[in-house]
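Researcher: Please translate sequence to structure tokens.
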Amino acid sequence: MRLKTIKFAFIKSIPVCAGYIFLGMGFGILLRNAGYGVIWAFCMSLFIYAGVMQYVGVNLLASNASIITTAVTTFMVNARHLFYSIAMIARYSDTNKYNPYLYYGLTDETYSLLCDCEIPEGLDKGEYLFYVTLFNHSYWILGGVLGNILGSVLPFSFSGVEFSMTAIFVASFTEQWLNNKDHLPAITGIVSTLTCLIIFGRDNFLIPAMLIITAVLLIFGKKRGEL
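Model: Translation complete:
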């Protein structure tokens, strides 16, 4: 049964694989160009595990930024993960020993894969959530290490590779829309994001949008008895 769970989790994680490896390689190359080797790439990918923040982190390292600057920057860049965690409380219920790692490994793409995925009958919920999270984490580490190694010997241009993450989100959104009759989460996300984008602008819309989305889903979740 565990092998079936691992296989199903791996298949579900495949869309994230290409994006994470290529973006991770971009980070690894950038880190190598800043003068930091493969150990740094491995440790940052393992312990920080935050795509955008790792790219920003290279600049912070190169500029010898203070601890306070680094802490504030990290909080601002990754604040959206607080809302992801709140939204996944119900989903992560009864996962017992896997809980700490599930919250630690909750990235944008992992959230997208796990928030609405239907788990086949007979598979262990906690194990499935854990293995999807672990596979995604492994892809990111692999990409960072490969990029750091290859970046020292081969010239690469990763211009435009960030679009792969957009493509993953579009594919996940489409799959969830087609496979779920309840479109409230999707509609809430679209309307809230567009509204906040217009009101607050592209540099400040994310946190207000996440607040609204989280509030709406919590309210309707309680009314439906899902929370």
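Researcher: Any highlights?
Model: DSSP finds eleven helices and no strands in the chain.
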